Amino acid sequence: MKRIITLLITLITVSTFSQTTINGHVVDSKNNPVEGANVYLEGTYDGTTTNEKGDFSFTTEETSTQTLIVSFVSFETQHIASDVSTLQNLSITLREDINALDTVVLSAGTFAAGDNSKVSVLKPLDVVTTASALGDFVGALQTLPGTTTVSEDGRLFVRGGEAEETQIFIDGIRVFTPYTPSPNNSPTRGRYSPFLFDGITFSTGGYSAEYGQALSSVLLLNTIDEPDQKKTDIGIMSVGATLGNTQKWDKNSLSINASYINLAPYNKLFNDRNDWKKPYEGASGEAVFRHKTNNGIYKLYSAFDASRFDLIQEDINVADGIRFKLNNKNLYFNGSYSGELNDVWRVFGGISYTYANNKVGIIESDINNTENSIHAKAKFKRRFNSRFKLNFGVEYFATRFNEDFTTTGIAPLDYGYNNNITAAFAEADVFFSKKLALKAGLRTEYSELFKEATLSPRLSLAYKTGAKGQLSFAYGDFYQNPNADVLKFNQDLTAQQTQHYILNYQYNNDGKIFRAETYYKNYKNLVKYDTEFTQFDSNFNSNGSAFAKGLDLFWRDSKSIKNIDYWVSYSYLDTERDYRNFPEAAQPNFANTHNLSVVGKYWVDKWKSQIGVSYTYASGRTYTDPNQSGFLNAKTKSFNSLSVNWAYLLSQQKILYFSINNVLGVKNINGYQYANTPDINNNFSRRALRPALDQFFFVGFFWTISEKGTDNQLDNL
Description:
Blueprint: H1 2-18, E1 20-27, E2 38-41, E3 47-49, E4 55-60, E5 65-71, E6 78-83, E7 90-93, E8 110-114, E9 120-122, H2 126-129, H3 137-141, E10 166-170, E11 173-175, E12 197-203, E13 217-223, E14 231-237, E15 240-248, E16 252-262, H4 264-269, E17 275-292, E18 296-315, E19 318-340, E20 345-362, E21 365-385, E22 388-407, E23 410-431, E24 436-447, E25 452-464, E26 469-480, H5 484-487, E27 496-509, E28 512-529, E29 540-557, E30 564-578, E31 594-604, E32 609-618, E33 622-623, E34 634-635, E35 639-651, E36 654-661, E37 671-674, E38 686-689, E39 696-706
Parallel strand pairs: 1-7, 8-9, 10-13
Antiparallel strand pairs: 1-4, 2-3, 2-5, 5-6, 8-12, 10-11, 12-13, 14-15, 14-39, 15-16, 16-17, 17-18, 18-19, 19-20, 20-21, 21-22, 22-23, 23-24, 24-25, 25-26, 26-27, 27-28, 28-29, 29-30, 30-31, 31-32, 32-35, 33-34, 35-36, 36-39, 37-38
């Protein structure tokens, strides 16, 4: 018995002395104790939690080197690898987890639209449910602050910039010809269906160093990564028809959309101000093929459209009007891969090809131009830790443009150019804390056409002022080569340049978003010429300049009033330009000083309907009245338009849709055209440039046939 007792005492003593005590103290970055933090040895059951003072202590029989893990919600997990004998009297400081939902967001100059965005100003649904948009993503974006109302054009004019200063990208790859052609004084539309996209980022300034050749803005469209089910969409409209189909397999999926538009029947019911010989007719098709791998996704996107029209438009200087006809064909292909190489590296590669052909007839002149463009990009992202990420890459743009011009009495003329640009960029995201973040980048470009290299620094800083609000600042240099109307006649120029300065405040609280943003833009090296329009005998130079400054306000509320979602946008713009054939600096005729948009949507359960209202106001635009002294010396009356729409669910998957633009029939005026010579009283007569139609009526029936039988096209309306 005595031996047994001695043996037990020995075993207990050995066991006691083989255990090691691990202890310490856990605090946050402000030296406040962290209560309830989990502290344990990786791969064991040995551990504990911190008490109200942030202290912890536990014993272990583990020996040699072990990993101590300290974790707590909203803080970064710490890993301490050391010999267990040294894990005593530890002082551990936990840093805030910058991946948390309440982390600061770098958002100056950027509107995000996507269900997965931390701060989503618009949803994908908004693109096609905004009454004034008529299913066009550009139309929906024109209700956001920073855009200018140029109703006869239809493209995006951003913060005092021309429409060509905004570039559009699909899955990170450039779209060279994003709009369908249209007659003078008739708005164009984006070529691409919103139904294939689930995310939109609209940067009105200060955007990433990854994007170039855009002086004012970039619009990023991301195609859907993976559809949720097989389905077929059928649409019958007052202006044509649409048909879409989505197939889904294990790792592959395919979505196809086709549409046919013919305005001849509509024009017979509602005459406009044009004398149509052949009303607008167009056919288009899009397809997205996706293949998912274990680490990434391949996407192949293609779009083709063809359109034509022939009409005579009124002209004050030509008694019989001017005949204008056009035949357009456009092909866009985009292929990309995005995926993970390992836990810290991501890679992206993509290439696009654009073929665009326009055959234009103006009176007795014929113009045939063709553009072939390529954009190739390779990008890498390195995640060093949750607080530091590096993004860098290279890209190449190549454009070949040719134009043949024939007219009576003159020998045929040929114009063209090659515009090839090589670029490289690098950009770092640094999160100092959940409240403070920095994005700093540098972009360099080399133009083979100009034999010129440019360097563009970009910077964005964001500070979280409270639980719901934050301040942001952005600065950047941006370059863009002149457009085809200039380069086809003269290549002895330089890249146009602008600088952006942006200060932003944003508040986001449970369905309510408020943004206030002020900015200043300074332009250099804009193109000037000495003729009314660009032509072969114009004298060109790069001595133009401009400035734009203003204030943008945005408020959206989808929670305060049951079943009502609305937003209000206001923009103030002060800008002058000395470019093109301007004899002096002046406010250009595409710029409105004040722009206001109010959009509302109301769901009526009893009627199984969604009713939408959209109101747009824009102050008058400048024009030159030759009966008075000065240049751009007068302004039109203000622009006003109220649009309404109604989507009615006939059944779960069948919808009847109505919309009316400018329901009040306001007689808006876009400008004036004056006679070339004065009358006997030495006055120049004029005619108002009004929209071809004061109102536009649309009726459509949409039917979805899906596997689950629950989806409908309300998301598409």
